Amino acid sequence: MAAVVIPGDHLAPWEEDVGDLVAFLRQQPKLDETRLALTGAPGGANSVWRLASHFPQWFSGVCAVGGYGNPYHVRALKDVPLLAVSVEREDLPSDEEEFLVGVERLVMGLRTAGSRQVECRREGPCSREEAWNRAFLEGDAGEWLLAQDRKKQFQVHWLLPGVWRIDDYFTASCYLVEGRDKALLVDTGMGEGDLAGLTASLTNLPVEVAITHPHLDHMHGIDGFSAVYLHRADREALLQNPQAFPGALSSPSASLPPLLPLDDGARIDLGGDIWVEALELPGHTPHSMVFADGYHRCLFTGDALGSGYIVLLICPEKEALSLVGQYQKALERFSAQLPRLRDYAWLGGHGIQENGCDDRRQQDYLAGCSHYFNPIRAEVVHDMLSLCQALLSGEIPWEQVQKAPDHYCSRGSAGIFFRFS
């Protein structure tokens, strides 16, 4: 447990310092960052609302007893389990620099934003201290907080009619696409919650799965679905040695669902003239695929082009430039598709990474003031081709890559991290 004293319950001057502290705690090996809950003493409720709404993906659950917050910021907590205790007869703080409202309005703002995770408990006339004692000393607020687990939580984003993005605790993104007869879930992420139940709450259609590549953060728990499409070579590898893909199943006793092979150009028919086309784009993995949905004009890219940040290439160091050459050829083949795909929405396997990978800067992009924004698009393909050529020609010396943090190199909007196996 970490306790922070905020003078006068006015977090603003101390927010950077408190954020740095929480970020430091999340990096500690003995602390499970997916079970980090937030609450405050009776005098710290305003700071709870502010910190939680500025860093919503840091906390597995939040309990605020009374207090005031900015309703537009608090809506960032839409997918975070929140226990709010409403206290009657609280005085509104005199803060002329920020618009603040009380618990009842904050809770309603969350509900109208689509939250199913907020619970409001109402205390009669009493002080905030009395309400806190009832919640924690006499009630179950403490047990409720400790029971929350980000590994079981998802964030749902409606993108357009018939398409949703679902993010898990690892910021892996999967996409639900509706046809007339069935729906397709592109990737399953690595969350441990009931993803099949969640998709069933979003669509009445039967849901099948298509996998961009068989990494743990994109293919967990596929046994929860009736059928799974994946590249033919990945299918064979999974059938022959399922133990090599320990995250694919939700439990050791689970069985693989029917696995359906995909080749380059194969189409998955969802009915009603809606189909999803599989396109090979190896590099991140030997058989990575992207999926093009012409009806909704969406391209689901997995990790084949990064997610607005970098592409990760994994190989022994002695094979790195050979892999770059193979990736370059794959990009050249894929470039033939750009005229028809250029104006699609390009949706990556880690959607939040279009703002970079520094979750310490969450408030920057939630507030619309991030200094990094690099969505996947055709320009990334062109710059990635240029980057590959610069590596192969020696324009970017290999010694420079070896010495760089994470063996990073970049050109324009494209970047590569090398992970040497």
UniProtKB/TrEMBL annotation:
Residues 171-350 form the Metallo-beta-lactamase domain. InterPro entries: AB_hydrolase_fold, Metallo-B-lactamas, NDM-1-like, RibonucZ/Hydroxyglut_hydro. SMART domains: Lactamase_B (SM00849). It holds the Pfam family Lactamase_B. This is MBL fold metallo-hydrolase.
